[in-house]
Amino acid sequence: MTAHAYQVSAVNFRHSARQPWVLENVNFTVAPGEFVGVIGPNGAGKTSLLNLMGRLARPQSGVIRLFGEDLATLNPSGVARIVAMVPQEGRPAFAFSVLETVLMGRFPHRKATGLFASVAGAGWESEDDHRIAWCALADTGISHLADRSIDTLSGGEWQRVVIARALAQGPRILLLDEPTAHLDLQHQIDICALLRRVNETQGFTIVMVSHDLNLASQYCDRLLLLHEHGIAASGSPEHVLSADVLRRVYGCEILVDAHPISGLPRITVPGRARVN
Model pTM? Predict the structure, then answer.
């Protein structure tokens, strides 16, 4: 029997003993190859949950299992060879090229040791590292940008670079925190279509935090809706994105109908009445 990609059991988390709980008694699983969306209002704990799953933070109690192993017992480089994170982040201060940036994803697999092994371009990358990096550039459609400085890229181009860097890491799981934030509509669609493609063709397990309920509905297999320190609803988009559930969680009127092409839930906000 194949182990869950993630099994989260009775997890409680807060940032310090003096602060309130961010997550309380959280339980869920993620199957290998699943594309899961994590949604919910601001402050619901979405980023905290992603950080726990990436071992960037540790719960005060409870257990997170990664393919059957206790995540807390795994060393950081071992986790990094399985899990790649795409956080909400600015660009590095230095004007690395796109290829150099993507090659940074190979760092968990480095054979060199010492101070200079951590510096991009220091010569620690093997021919295999370069081959994998170029494959990641091709998978994300940015091979033509390989020699470009990252400080010349548009927002959509940069987002593809950080996803390519994550793919070059050679993981089985991608954790993404708001990968479409601050992008225009076309780039939002492009990024979600890219993630869906690598999920379906390469078998990546994907967990994506998103504030955009419509993107989550159209691209994710299953949704986790966080609210009041826990999971308010979990299941298919049709199950989670009901008007009653969303009204209770978000505290406002929301209209839900079926998308005319996909048949999946489509969310709109009520418009103001026109005055004739």
Answer: 0.91
